[in-house]
Amino acid sequence: MKPQHMSCKQTAAQAIVECMNREKVKHVFCVPGESYLPILDALYDTPSIDVIAARHEGGAAFMAEGYAKSTLKPGIVLATRGVGAANLSIGVHTAHQDSTPLIVFLGQVHHQFRGREAFQEVDLEHFFQPISKWVVEVKDPERMPEIVQKAFRIAQSGRPGPVIISIPEDVLPMEAAMYFGPPVKKPKPVPAQAEVAAAEELLLQAKRPLIIAGGGVKSAGAERALLRFAEKHELPVMAAFRRHDVFPNDHPLYVGHLGLGIAKEIRETVDQSDLIVACGTRLSEVTTQGYSILMAEKRLLQIDIEVATLGNVYAPDLGIVADLREALQAFTFNASNRVWRDWVSKCRHRYEAASHLVYQPTDVLNKQVIAILQDNLPPEAIITNDAGNFAGWLHTFFSFKKAHSYVGPTSGAMGYGMPAAIGAKLAFPHKTIVSLSGDGGFMMTVQELETAVRYDIPIISLVFNNQMYGTIRMHQEIEYPDRVMATDLGSVSFVDLAKGVGAAGILVHTAEEFKQAFARALTMNRPVVIEIQTEQEQIAVGTTIEQLRK
Ligand SMILES: Cc1ncc(C[n+]2csc(CCOP(=O)(O)OP(=O)(O)O)c2C)c(N)n1
Ligand SMILES: [Mg+2]
User: Structure pTM?
Assistant: First the structure.
């Protein structure tokens, strides 16, 4: 027998940590609970794994999700019973929608108490079923390695996603002979020759093809393959919702981002295309602009690692199950791209018109902040963001030039940005990590600032403070003008909040102040919050409250 399969007598909790070791886990995120003390104790003996204790399970789950999204390795979360499960479910939902590998270990009540609505008991299998790839309860200690290794496999294989492991507290300290299998190797399916030929045929027939590239390209590490493929044939590339960094935005073949409230120029490009090449995108509601981008006359070539994604939204003319890197490298045809050259330059022109970013002192502060970030962020930096209208300026104007420079929630979860930045910073301690949040979203997970201070994780958090749930106020003004309800927020000093937990805080009102504050933040090497006071009136990119009311 190979040594990796060797059996040994261990507790179930030790076997979990042994599986983590075999999968080279370096960080786990948790809020402790009495239901899973044996796992914490096994981690006590494992200095190679850092345990980050968060202030809220939602924060822990976002940290793990941000860690996983930036590293492409599974994020690990530990929490307790129904209460922890309920708190962390937003992170599981985000991992599910965003196809991020996440493994959640939840202490469960004693097996003899199950089904009696015991203290904090929730049937976790039912609770998580719709928002996870797999939920399982481990009843026998000796099956722990098998189930945990399967969890690592499921979370990462095909379309990645979250897996939940529920463990009754009496199982964790039980000893058994444990058998471990080899660590996970992700399958990388290759397209069949006939499929490659059919795909090339479809492409050659197209007059105005458009690639929409999603998370599948990123999780396959296929950015370079996509770049080569697009360059070889001079094909235009658009990023799916919140997958900006899938293709260098300053490249002449990059033609925009399919986000919320996109510019009409971007929409024109999609509308005029006659073939969509969907690469590793599930064609979400936002990416497809409310499932409206494909009409009868438009053809669809869809390449995805998950068979269930093909045709889930639109029936493709051709659907190929493949790893994106393998698929893009399999195309060897030579297309005459002269027909496409004209089309591409039109698309690029439109993108440039919609996203033109130069520093102008007359611009709204939000836009100037993005211009300053663009000019002053180190090239290796990673940006994370929350959900909210403040993000519109980032999505519209920031030019992501490097692969793996962006981590955002396609689930639209508020509270994501700052904890995700903590996860990304732990993964890449030498990179500058900057989170962008609104005042509403930042306050949903603000407590994790203390976690960043406690573990000395120097992230820079920008908070756009307009004292309102601006996005919802915008929708309110459109649907019910001048009838403001539940969208005003109180005055909060985010600078004082930051200082209260030991982080640095800087308040800015102008672009010049921001520029100086950001330069300082870059040198501080500790968690910093820059609170940016913004105008309520400028409620979204390209519109004011007054204009909405009219
Ligand atoms: C967890 C969560 N709750 C509610 C919403 C609905 N929602 C979307 S944006 C938004 C307001 C965001 O406010 P803020 O963070 O201050 O950003 P702003 O829009 O003001 O820039 C709300 C409530 C959401 N997306 N996520
Ligand atoms: Mg706000």
Answer: 0.97
